[in-house]
Design goal:
Layout: E1 7-8, E2 14-15, E3 17-21, H1 50-60, E4 67-71, H2 81-89, E5 96-101, H3 106-116, E6 120-124, H4 130-137, H5 142-155, E7 160-166, H6 175-185, E8 188-193, H7 211-221, E9 225-227, E10 241-245, E11 251-255, E12 268-271, E13 276-278, E14 287-288, H8 290-294, H9 299-311, H10 331-334
Parallel strand pairs: 3-4, 3-12, 4-5, 5-6, 6-7, 7-8, 8-11
Antiparallel strand pairs: 1-2, 9-10, 10-11, 12-13, 13-14
Helix pairs in contact: 1-2, 2-3, 3-5
């Protein structure tokens, strides 16, 4: 019976959103996520199988989980990902499946993923020139990403959302081009404040380019932005605050994790590629679900592990306090 109760933590937050990392491997090396060289990836035997992921989701759905997002690493390097999408889409109660990708392999896979049941896609792209792209990723591939975005639009994804990390001293000159990109292509650009999840521990608060500064730049350089009323927005309940230009052409979102934390409305839990359940992106504790899945634990034991993890969730990430401690796992190992 307890498995049917909603996942509510001690602060009254209801959890319905599960982010699933399918791999820690990636084909680029963004500085805010991974070291440039000598990355130690998990052995493939450590990764949850598609069947294990499916079983975990089937246990979680009766507890109120109805939104899923596949992440990595780079999820498209996991072979036959469309097979997993189809498995998850067939689970009664799953209402929404999304994917976050760097887009390099998207042109080849977009249609197959859409046909399998994927309906929302976010492409990580921090710059709109090949040269600046390489500064962020330490790899080539800008043209492949642009073609991947076009392929996703052709496949039926609408809108395609672009996740652009904002870093002071690096991305100020990308703000206006991204505004025009949103207006010209129909993508929704979402600016994300630089967060302390880099493998090199080089994050500093002074490097964060804040959302309000980007709003001011776009409004003065293109035209004013106006907030999109909640009832007319996408309705997916994510962390982004959404705006559009005054003429209604071009949508811009902001994930202001540092300057405007949204912890008290967080509805997410996460499972890493190696089967560790995390109740917060910045959590210092994990629950080992893989051992339960591979030990043939009954469903109620897995459900109790999920419920205990949610119950232990802290009030917030504390980035803006002296108490903040950066997680040992960098972003690529946790799952975006």
């Amino acid at each position: 019976m307890s498995a049917q109760l909603p996942l509510i933590d001690s602060f009254g937050r209801l959890h319905n959103n599960l982010r699933i990392s399918v791999t820690d491997r990636c084909n680029i090396r963004c500085f805010y996520c991974m070291p440039a060289e000598d990355v130690q990836f998990m052995d493939k035997s450590e990764l949850l199988t598609f069947e294990e992921i499916e079983r975990f989701v089937r246990v979680a759905v009766p507890m109120g989980i109805d939104k899923l997002r596949l992440t990595g690493g780079e999820p498209l390097v996991r072979r036959e990902l469309n097979t997993l999408v189809a498995k998850l889409a067939s689970i009664p109660g799953v209402k929404d499946i999304g994917l976050t990708t760097n887009g390099i392999m998207l042109a080849q896979q977009a249609q197959g993923l859409y046909d399998a049941g994927l309906r929302r896609i976010n492409v990580s792209l921090d710059a709109l020139t090949p040269e600046k792209f390489k500064k962020f990723t330490r790899r080539d591939g800008f043209e492949q990403v642009i073609e991947g975005i076009r392929a996703a639009q052709r496949a039926g994804f609408d809108p395609v959302k672009i996740n652009a990390v904002s870093v002071r001293g690096m991305t100020e000159d990308e703000i206006v081009p991204f505004g025009h990109f949103a207006r010209e292509t129909g993508v929704e650009v979402r600016f994300i404040e630089y967060m302390p999840l880099d493998a090199d521990n080089a994050w500093e608060r002074g490097k964060v380019l804040f959302a309000h500064e980007i709003i001011e730049t776009l409004s003065s350089s293109i035209m004013p932005l106006r907030p999109i009323e909640e009832e007319s927005a996408s309705g997916h309940g994510g962390p982004a605050t959404e705006f559009e230009f005054d003429d209604g052409v071009g949508r811009i979102g902001f994930i202001a994790s540092v300057s405007q934390p949204f912890c008290m409305s967080c509805n997410r839990i996460r499972i890493t590629a190696d089967g560790k359940l995390r109740n917060c992106l910045f959590s210092m504790e994990e629950t080992d679900v893989r051992s339960l899945l591979r030990g043939q634990a009954p469903d109620d034991q897995i459900a109790n592990a999920i419920r205990s993890s949610v119950a232990a969730k802290k009030e917030g990430h504390e980035i803006n306090t002296a108490r903040f401690i950066q997680p040992e796992r960098p972003m690529y190992s946790i799952g975006g």
